[in-house]
Amino acid sequence: MGCNQPKAPETSAAPAATLASYFADSETGVQDGNVQVIPISTPKGQFKVWTKRFGNNPKIKVLLLNGGPGATHEYFECFENFLPKEGIEFIYYDQLGCGNSDNPKDTSMWSLPRYVEEVEQVRQALKLDNTNFYLLGHSWGGILAAEYAFKYQQNLKGLIISNMMMSCPDYGRYAQDVLAKQMKPEVLAEIRQLEAKKDFSNPRYMGLLEPNFYAEHLCRIVPNPEPVSRSLGKMNQSLYVTMQGPSEFGVAGKLAKWDRVPDLPKLAVPVLSIGGKYDTMDPAHMRMIATKVQKGNSLICPKGSHMSMYDDQQTYFTGLIRFLKAVDAGTVQPGAAL
Question: Origin, by domain of life (predicted)?
Fold first, then answer.
């Protein structure tokens, strides 16, 4: 077991012949941009979720799990600038209640175990298996990816937990004990007053959080990159509040007691834990994840926040690509240079 921050050398583009196959038409009939709408069975009936495949690589297929919960796949659009030139296939996916997928508008369906089964149905429909299936979950998607791996790691080739701690109580404590103390006392006092009154719909609440917390720890590029603003602007508030709580400033929803740190040693699949120095999540905790799993590496982006794929892109994508290629080649070693 080990923890390692990959170096950031230049990456080489895939050979032309490989890229030709990567971008080759693989659909029959009407071409629709590799969109596949997948039927999902749930205890409340049948629904449909939206996926879109980018590129074709039989050996590396990365399914992306968005955060929120309740955001959309759209903030992952920056991946298009980095993964295709390396010949790495990735798949956009809007979870049920998100983006282009069905929205049952039933809060009883916003549950972690049900979402795990949804991911498994998506995997089966996309014909992903342990020879090619990499799961990358960001933020809430990191919780979902980890929970999927605890149940179904036999289907995975690699797991990437991006910008997420494996304990929501620890996340809450980090927000309270570390990040809150970095705020101006008068700002924090007013935020706490609004929270005590549960006045979360008051525009003043987000008006205080956005410049004093979000711009420091969620995404340090202000205004946010357009795909981030577009995705977060479509947030399913019912799903978000039910699972997360009223804001990113700690956690108060159904996930408040979720803690999988004791179970991390059960993960035998190669794991990359990514975080940012300025993240809403504790960088030390995200390094620790890599030391607890059986085959772990960590990548802490020195300029990054919760959206490290935007505010520290070169570090984020160099490390991610290096990990994917090392797992594919069978050369990834716990604690070794990627």
Answer: Bacteria
* Structural domain count, the chain: 1
pLDDT digits (tens, 9 = 90+) for 169-215: 999 999 999 999 999 999 999 988 988 888 888 889 889 988 999 99
Q: Which one from 73, 101, 139, 167 is the annotated catalytic residue?
A: 139
CATH code of the domain containing 300 = 3.40.50.1820
Domain that holds residue 76: 16-171+226-329
- Name the residue type at position 123: R
pLDDT digits (tens, 9 = 90+) for 264-284: 999 999 999 999 999 999 999
Is 312 part of the annotated catalytic residue set? no
Return the half-sphere exposure (C-beta side, CA atoms, 13 A cut-off) of residue 131. Answer: 4
User: Which region, left, alpha or beta, applies to residue 106 given φ > 0 means left and ψ of -120 to 50 means alpha?
Assistant: beta
Say what the pTM is: 0.92
Catalytic residue among 73, 138, 217, 306: 306
Residue 217: active-site member: no
In angstroms, the first-to-last Cα distance of the chain is 14
Considering the domain boundaries, does residue 209 fall inside one? Answer: no
